[in-house]
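Epoxyqueuosine reductase structure dump, as promised
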Amino acid sequence: MALLEALLGKASELGFKAGVIEARVVFERGLARLKEREEYRWVTPFVSGSLEQRCRPLSLYPGARTVIALAYPWYFPDPAPWKPGQGIIAMSARGEDYHRVLRRRLEPLVSWLREQGARLVVTQVDNGPLLEREAAFWAGLGYYGYNCSLIVPGWGSWVALGLIVTDLEIEPTPYQEERRCKECGQCFAACPSGALIGPYILNPSRCLSYLTQKRGFLPREVRSLLGARLYGCDTCQEVCPENEGLSREQAQLAKPFPFPDLVNVLQLDNHSFKEQFGATALAWRGKGVLKRNALIALGNSGYATEEAIKIMEQFLSSPSAILRAHAAWALGQLKVPHSHLALEMALQKEQDPMVRQELEKALFSY
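structure tokens r here:
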């Protein structure tokens, strides 16, 4: 008990809420969900490890005795209202990359565990196979919302999660069975793409957060659903009553980039992309995905400046077929008269069948 209390106190000093489970546990609930997703072909490419590895800590670390689950508040209030012509970046990608922040903050805790005699100390911050939400749930840190987010009392679902696996034996913290989602259904009703298909059931391949990160062509039927989203989607969390009333004291006060100018995004080169976004969690997807999303957002805006239209027309001759196709779609949505000629000229030169199809549909929309 003394070691557990010392651990929880040390974690709290570093800004974390912590809980402990035995490493021999099996995440039966998580395993059932993963099998369901495999059965329905809902698996996304962003996960690693087999089902066994993701749900059974000992399958990865045979000498482990304890898994420490940690939650860290990740809430950035909007510094100013969103304006047309701007993109929207989800909370998880605002401020410095949460992977870096949590790993840096975990270092003193790792050192402390080694001082207590630990030989095995492995950290994971959304970059390993183990199901972090499941570990946090069973460690009593929070409970699942209807939208599949983990709700941490006092912090809501605006949290970043991490794990430490160690061979140090620490008494488990109790699972809080009485804590439950209110099941008001607001997240279910608000989900733009219908990714929430039932209580605590998410089809991740339909989730707009995933789609904004997915490379390649986005289906036409989901482009209009993205609105001004540049990276990620927070809709189901924004409407959750558990996320109301969070104060600045509970917020990260780093400088976020919640609403970048879409025209500026289209003009990013490698240097300016790294300068503006290199330290954030969205950098890993690269500027190509961000530019594709910016074109979609401008197409959804219903209005674009003369400068924006000119730059979008330039993308009709981009070396990237993906960007050419989405530029054609966006211009077809806006239906600016003088873009008709640009689309016709692009169609005359275009060889890629998918881009030609987008150009033809854009012209037909006039």
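Strands lie at 17-22, 66-73, 88-89, 121-124, 143-144, 150-151, 159-166, 196-198, 201-202, 229-231.
lmk if u need the other ones
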